[in-house]
Amino acid sequence: VEEAALDYNKSLSYKRISYYAARNLYYQIPEGTSMEIIFPDDFHHHFRDGNKTKSVLAQVTKRFSRCIAMPNLQPPVTNTVLATKYYNHIMGNIPNNNECGFEPLMVLYLTDNTTPDEIRKAMKTGFIKAVKYYPAGATTNSEFGVTALSKVYPAIEAMEEVGMVLCIHSEVSRSEIDIFDREAVFIDEVMTPLVRDFKKLKIVMEHISTDKAVNYVKNGPSNLAASITAHHLLYNRNALLVGGIKPHFYCLPILKREKHRLALLEAATSGSPKFFAGTDSAPHVTGDKESACGCAGVYTAHAAVELYAEAFESQGALKHLEAFLSVNGCAHYGMKQNTKKLKLVKKEWAVPATYEFGGETVTPLRAGHTVAWSIEE
Known about the structure:
- By secondary structure, the protein is α/β, with parallel strands linked by helices.
- It has 13 helices and 15 strands.
């Protein structure tokens, strides 16, 4: 069976670096099979700013009805005034005058100086749905982030009071901590006291990447949930490092060992309401990725739903895809499910080498290779 699985993987028209394992043989859906799901939501997306936002939205609105808009711009979206400005910018760049009805869900960037009054003001807007905890220095444009958990307790207390969701980049950023261990250390040092002290606060550990995070969320209280990216479900660190450094697989949190990918895959496809989609699609100009100090981020907006479908198919778990993409996240955020539907078809398509990105180019995941599922527009 293992030899047959290897032969099967070699026959694919792209290099499936994730190596689904032999069980993948038993769960292949026939070409042309279709399925209809509630239109998905993405609870972690980077729209960027300026003319690049329009390029991103052209891909996003075909696949998602609502997206959490990450606030790590330059300057960061640290208050309600800036969030309102960014909301209007996104709304003004939605294709075809927003005939699709797309809704950006705005987020404040949490700093040591965020006040309880700012949290209450943000909540009253109706379109600011969360606050993002970036440990200072943990990822792109996070230098204004939180330096110590104790400094943001007053703001978090206000969030718990008004029902605002706390989204967390769950990694420490200290230089002495190995990059592959930063999520595990964060759970011990930050998540444990945070969950203990705020029993009514809705918390999302975003883009989890380790088996420790999976188990922590599984065994945690009902107010704790996690988002998972498509690329963390499909790839391990070999994709980044074997045969030369592949900069378009470099992201934070960084891809981990295969055992962690398998733990994420099991959690996502299990049907548990504690896990849902957060693509962390993070576009950078191709030249900024392919450089001596390349940016962290994987661009998946062009095929995120289709890539999630691949991952769920690999586990024979397509019956749970709708819940992961369209139900669990909005339930945790306290929002109604979308009413319109999205149709997925088992139909292979080729991903272009690049997409237009505000007058420049962005290199997508699977550039020059294929994706096994398509959306029917």
